[in-house]
Amino acid sequence: MQVPKELEGILSINPNIMGGAICFTGTRIPVKILLDNHRSSISVEEFLDAYPDLTREQVQAVIDWEDGQARRLLGLDLAS
């Protein structure tokens, strides 16, 4: 498991934090929590209210990266 290059600085892995799960840098908040909440249609605003240590920019970067990955895998143009 490794942090995607595009998300270095936003996400990090430390074997001493949350068992080495990928977390938002400087926190103990695993990125999996964001992805699970996003899949469950929890809004960014609701997520940020629950995790005030995160910034909108951090959260949006991960969501945008995830969307880009899905589009690339499906062969969809990112500009559309």
Quick take:
Helix content is 44%, strand content 8%. The chain is mostly helical. The protein is globular.
What does this structure look like?
- With 80 residues, the chain is mainly α.
- The protein has a single domain, classed as Arc Repressor Mutant, subunit A.
- Helix content is 44%, strand content 8%.
- It has helices at residues 31-39, 44-50, 56-74, and strands at residues 11-13, 22-24.
- A two-stranded antiparallel sheet has the order 1-2.
- A hairpin with an 8-residue loop joins β1 and β2.
- The chain is globular, with a radius of gyration of 13 Å.
- The mean pLDDT is 93.
Characteristic key phrases:
80 residues, mainly alpha, Arc Repressor Mutant, subunit A, two-stranded antiparallel ribbon, 2 strands, globular
How many domain regions? 1
Beta-strand proportion: 5-15%
CATH homology superfamily: Winged helix-like DNA-binding domain superfamily/Winged helix DNA-binding domain
What is the approximate shape? globular
How far the N terminus sits from the C terminus, by CA atoms, comes to 31 Å
The CATH class assignment is Mainly Alpha
Q: Any idea of the CATH topology?
A: Arc Repressor Mutant, subunit A
Q: How do the strands of the widest beta sheet line up side by side?
A: 1-2
Q: Which architecture per CATH? A: Orthogonal Bundle
User: The biggest beta sheet, please?
Assistant: 2 strands, antiparallel
